């Protein structure tokens, strides 16, 4: 079965997340986007675990579904052209902060389990180590290598994926607190790491510049902190629609089962370039290197972004030769509408046009990548078809994100927008 999966999200129990980030809103949003498999996120949090136990039922082996008395009431809120079965996979992100080899390490890791009993068993062990109540993404003084060992001991098919591996502050390879290799982090258990998450600020070609990542599946996920951000990155699979089908697709890096990813343009990510947000300084890696990594305004150390870190660890210049699995770079539909309409992506005007498109054409991923432009033009929204075509063909301009600020996308110049709208 061919399907789209978003394997990294959070719940309303995580810090800085929307209060609407619950199973019900995720179920609706997944259908709007065209996603069939969604990570639960935060399964280590006791409050969220109670909700998972009470609202979910076993479906295909290792996958869960909403209880029919809940999903039945929600289906009427979803346009008929978007309706699909939505499944959940048990997961959580864990923040490991610890000292290793004389340096403080801050790594975020994603963990996955095939059943609620395994999660319960894992949570009991985790709760003895630190506080798993205060945040949906627990912060623990636990070496990532020993976290992996705990995961493997909990269930033979539980697995761990290092999250957004290039992010400066909290990741496996980040410039501020990461390692220079996967082995340095996970040591003897490294063979059990078979996938890594690229994060919003990098894409597959950037990762393929680093040869030690060649044998790892590169997954992309939304890290959604609100239902609307679900699917801003996602994975395309063609497997048996169950936990082991997903497990083997990720582990074997088979291009016939792991078909590719939908990606942010990496420049859109908020840590792509280097800089200092407070000083208004945005720099390329080459510019930062000439300055010795110091801000030209305040003289303090710059936040060195993902591109800089990739350059540091890269050992090849032509990643396209090693690209094994395809990817598709997209801009979220509401962001495209925001530029066309000249208003914010979360305004009522944008929301109204978004609903018109979804109701008339179908799920967002289908509109953004698969649908014929002539079909999109039938809705009569000025220059929408041209905008989507330009995004598909990488005919856009992006002011790169840096030091926590997202990049800014421009599809049309002001002159082009006027001309095309006539």
TrEMBL record:
CDD domains: PfuEndoQ-like. SUPFAM superfamilies: PHP domain-like (SSF89550). This is DNA helicase UvrD. It comes from Desulfobotulus mexicanus.
